[in-house]
């Protein structure tokens, strides 16, 4: 009996089960990639992609948090286009974005050029110090800047007064509040962009600068003819990311003007699109209208991205 | 524009020091460093005096001895200890979660072949260009359907992954781990999981660490989303606690500044210890996430 059973038992112990296990193993190996990306895509779908698409849906309704909803078609959008508050928010967003991005990136370029210098002493110290703003929280930064820009007691106005200028009411005026908020943003991101540029510059052979210096090129010429061309791709990148970040400014205008609250002042002088979205969605609980603002923000981002793209390809074709 | 320098030029270069930085460059850098650090210093000055001094002109720029008094008030007015603990819990979970989950998915995208790989990765990259803020209303609806409003997981779970993180880890894994090594491990009978956990992850741990740091700092400083989903004071993160302080302050600036300073200190301490690695990480090509 044992001799009859043995081959089967042996097969059970080695051959067949091993093959079965190998098949299982193979299946598991083939499914492994999906298992590894599953956590990401699960969370990404629930909290990222689906909400994005759902925004377009909600925007077609008169929808409040209690769950009452009524299909209104494109009414939210036509209301939005007639809403001066929306156009104001759009203008403010662009104005703050330009005022912060342009000086920020120019300053970062210059700083990176200098920080990349062969003979710079204490380079590590300067690099670390320009990154301090990046790790400081936006909420904290905003409160400090609001004080420094205060009309009556702010250090900046005190200094302007010493130079013989009139005090500027930064929070109450359109340009003043935009400049103040732009300063907060630029303060926070300049060092960060500097380090990005510096990273690209490290790939440029140092001999190039030394040789240019020997040839009599001054620092400005070196900057124009070596630094800028080397950085072109990363400049494009920072322009795009600063745009995306700049179009969603929220915390700065909310906290910069504590009296103004969600409107950022009585005249909505510094209310950005995201703040307007928040005001409609969570201040007044009209989710549909707020979602319409979200869709508008999306359209703006797409348009700006397209313009960026066109400009970039143009620059490329002009300078092969 | 720049041919290789001739030998004679090279000889001249060796003899005299070229390209020395003028003093005014150091002066400008000094001004930049000052501008970078001054607002933080000013925060501490106001936080350590009272608000009357904060409003005195000319400005009073020396710290006073009032810091502990004001800090004590901060802890009295808002549950600040709880807020600090909440922020630590949220930021640590997000930092660790992003480092692990993004490394895992980045590994799959960099080193494994499977149908749909390129399409899925393209989706990841495309979402990096869409501002997340515009979808907050449906995000809020989903979180409230899950019954998570006013809980910390409402902040943690959506933050556990980031498209940028996957992009970043994929770059590092494909440039660090060569296929030979993977192949050798496979011949030795290692499973995909073992290859990831025993070989790939240890090799890219520095990159994962920097990504985790970014996740931590961003989560610590995040405002909009916690502001939307956290309602009761005992759930506040420090940023929301600052805002609450600002509301209840009756223009008591010293108090708001103390709160801000206390919320900034943990990140500053972290920065002192890991700043060099963070700088290095950004310089290696970390982009805004």
Automatic annotation (TrEMBL), chain A:
<keyword id="KW-1003">Cell membrane</keyword>
<feature type="transmembrane region" description="Helical">
    <location>
        <begin position="168"/>
        <end position="187"/>
    </location>
</feature>
<dbReference type="InterPro" id="IPR000515">
    <property type="entry name" value="MetI-like"/>
</dbReference>
<dbReference type="Pfam" id="PF00528">
    <property type="entry name" value="BPD_transp_1"/>
</dbReference>
<feature type="transmembrane region" description="Helical">
    <location>
        <begin position="31"/>
        <end position="60"/>
    </location>
</feature>
<feature type="transmembrane region" description="Helical">
    <location>
        <begin position="124"/>
        <end position="148"/>
    </location>
</feature>
<protein>
    <submittedName>
        <fullName>Sugar ABC transporter permease</fullName>
    </submittedName>
</protein>
<feature type="transmembrane region" description="Helical">
    <location>
        <begin position="94"/>
        <end position="112"/>
    </location>
</feature>
<feature type="transmembrane region" description="Helical">
    <location>
        <begin position="230"/>
        <end position="250"/>
    </location>
</feature>
<dbReference type="GO" id="GO:0005886">
    <property type="term" value="C:plasma membrane"/>
</dbReference>
<dbReference type="InterPro" id="IPR035906">
    <property type="entry name" value="MetI-like_sf"/>
</dbReference>
<keyword id="KW-0813">Transport</keyword>
<keyword id="KW-1133">Transmembrane helix</keyword>
<keyword id="KW-0812">Transmembrane</keyword>
<dbReference type="GO" id="GO:0055085">
    <property type="term" value="P:transmembrane transport"/>
</dbReference>
<keyword id="KW-0472">Membrane</keyword>
<dbReference type="InterPro" id="IPR051393">
    <property type="entry name" value="ABC_transporter_permease"/>
</dbReference>
<feature type="domain" description="ABC transmembrane type-1">
    <location>
        <begin position="90"/>
        <end position="308"/>
    </location>
</feature>
<comment type="similarity">
    <text>Belongs to the binding-protein-dependent transport system permease family.</text>
</comment>
<feature type="transmembrane region" description="Helical">
    <location>
        <begin position="287"/>
        <end position="311"/>
    </location>
</feature>
Automatic annotation (TrEMBL), chain B:
<feature type="domain" description="ABC transmembrane type-1">
    <location>
        <begin position="84"/>
        <end position="274"/>
    </location>
</feature>
<dbReference type="InterPro" id="IPR000515">
    <property type="entry name" value="MetI-like"/>
</dbReference>
<keyword id="KW-0472">Membrane</keyword>
<dbReference type="InterPro" id="IPR035906">
    <property type="entry name" value="MetI-like_sf"/>
</dbReference>
<dbReference type="GO" id="GO:0005886">
    <property type="term" value="C:plasma membrane"/>
</dbReference>
<protein>
    <submittedName>
        <fullName>Sugar ABC transporter permease</fullName>
    </submittedName>
</protein>
<dbReference type="Pfam" id="PF00528">
    <property type="entry name" value="BPD_transp_1"/>
</dbReference>
<dbReference type="GO" id="GO:0055085">
    <property type="term" value="P:transmembrane transport"/>
</dbReference>
<feature type="transmembrane region" description="Helical">
    <location>
        <begin position="120"/>
        <end position="142"/>
    </location>
</feature>
<keyword id="KW-1003">Cell membrane</keyword>
<feature type="transmembrane region" description="Helical">
    <location>
        <begin position="148"/>
        <end position="168"/>
    </location>
</feature>
<keyword id="KW-0812">Transmembrane</keyword>
<keyword id="KW-0813">Transport</keyword>
<feature type="transmembrane region" description="Helical">
    <location>
        <begin position="21"/>
        <end position="44"/>
    </location>
</feature>
<feature type="transmembrane region" description="Helical">
    <location>
        <begin position="195"/>
        <end position="217"/>
    </location>
</feature>
<comment type="similarity">
    <text>Belongs to the binding-protein-dependent transport system permease family.</text>
</comment>
<feature type="transmembrane region" description="Helical">
    <location>
        <begin position="83"/>
        <end position="108"/>
    </location>
</feature>
<keyword id="KW-1133">Transmembrane helix</keyword>
<feature type="transmembrane region" description="Helical">
    <location>
        <begin position="253"/>
        <end position="274"/>
    </location>
</feature>
């Amino acid at each position: 009996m044992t001799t009859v059973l043995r081959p089967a038992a042996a097969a059970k112990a080695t051959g067949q089960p091993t093959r079965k296990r190998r098949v299982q193993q193979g299946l598991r190996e083939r499914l492994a990639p999906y298992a590894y990306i599953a956590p990401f895509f699960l969370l990404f779908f629930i909290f990222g992609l689906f909400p994005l698409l759902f925004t377009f849906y909600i925007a077609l309704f008169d929808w409040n948090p209690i769950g009452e909803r009524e299909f209104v078609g494109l009414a939210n959008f036509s209301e939005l286009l007639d809403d001066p508050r929306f156009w104001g928010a759009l203008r403010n967003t662009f104005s703050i974005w330009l005022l912060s991005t342009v000086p920020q990136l120019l300053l970062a370029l210059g700083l990176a050029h200098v920080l990349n210098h062969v003979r710079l002493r204490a380079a590590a110290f300067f690099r670390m110090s320009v990154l301090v703003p990046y790790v400081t929280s936006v909420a904290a930064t905003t409160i400090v800047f609001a004080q420094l820009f205060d009309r009556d007691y702010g250090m900046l106005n005190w200094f302007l007064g010493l130079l013989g200028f009139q005090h500027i009411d930064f929070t109450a005026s359109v340009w003043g509040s935009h400049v103040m908020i732009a300063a907060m943003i630029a303060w926070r991101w300049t060092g960060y962009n500097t380090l990005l540029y510096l990273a690209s510059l490290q790939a440029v052979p140092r001999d190039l600068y030394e040789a240019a210096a020997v040839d009599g090129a001054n620092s400005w010429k070196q900057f124009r003819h070596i630094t800028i061309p080397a950085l072109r791709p990363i400049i494009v990148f920072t322009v795009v990311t600063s745009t995306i970040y700049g179009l969603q400014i929220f915390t700065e205008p909310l906290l910069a003007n504590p009296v103004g609250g969600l409107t950022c002042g009585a005249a909505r002088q510094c209310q950005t699109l995201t703040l307007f979205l928040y005001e409609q969605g969570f201040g007044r609980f009209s989710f549909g209208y707020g979602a319409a603002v979200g869709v508008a923000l999306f359209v703006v981002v797409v348009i700006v991205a397209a313009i960026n793209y066109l400009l970039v390809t143009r620059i490329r074709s002009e300078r092969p | 524009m720049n041919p290789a320098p001739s030998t004679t030029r090279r000889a001249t270069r060796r003899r005299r020091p070229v390209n020395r930085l003028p003093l005014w460059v150091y002066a400008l850098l000094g001004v930049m460093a000052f501008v970078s650090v001054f607002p933080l210093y000013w925060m501490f000055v106001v936080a350590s005096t009272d608000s009357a001094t904060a409003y005195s002109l000319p400005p009073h720029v020396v710290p006073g001895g009032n810091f502990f008094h004001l800090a004590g008030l901060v802890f009295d007015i808002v549950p600040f200890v709880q807020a600090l603990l909440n922020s630590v819990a949220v930021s640590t979970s997000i930092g660790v979660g992003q480092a692990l989950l993004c490394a895992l998915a980045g590994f799959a995208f960099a080193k494994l072949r499977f149908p749909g790989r390129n399409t899925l990765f393209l989706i990841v990259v495309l979402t990096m260009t869409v501002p997340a803020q515009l979808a907050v209303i449906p995000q809020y609806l989903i979180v409230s359907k899950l019954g998570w409003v006013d809980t910390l997981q409402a902040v943690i779970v959506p933050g556990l992954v980031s498209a940028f993180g996957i992009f970043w880890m994929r770059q590092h894994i494909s440039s660090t781990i060569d296929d030979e090594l993977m192949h050798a491990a496979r011949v030795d009978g290692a499973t995909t999981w073992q290859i990831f956990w025993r070989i790939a992850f240890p090799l890219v741990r520095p990159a994962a660490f920097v990504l985790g740091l970014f996740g931590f700092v961003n989560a610590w400083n995040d405002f909009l989303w916690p502001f939307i989903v956290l309602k009761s004071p005992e759930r506040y993160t420090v940023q929301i606690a600052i805002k609450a302080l600002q509301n209840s302050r009756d223009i008591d600036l010293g108090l708001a500044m103390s709160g801000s300073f206390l919320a900034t200190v943990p990140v500053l301490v972290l920065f002192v210890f890991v700043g060099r690695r963070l700088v290095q990480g950004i310089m290696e090509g970390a982009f805004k996430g």
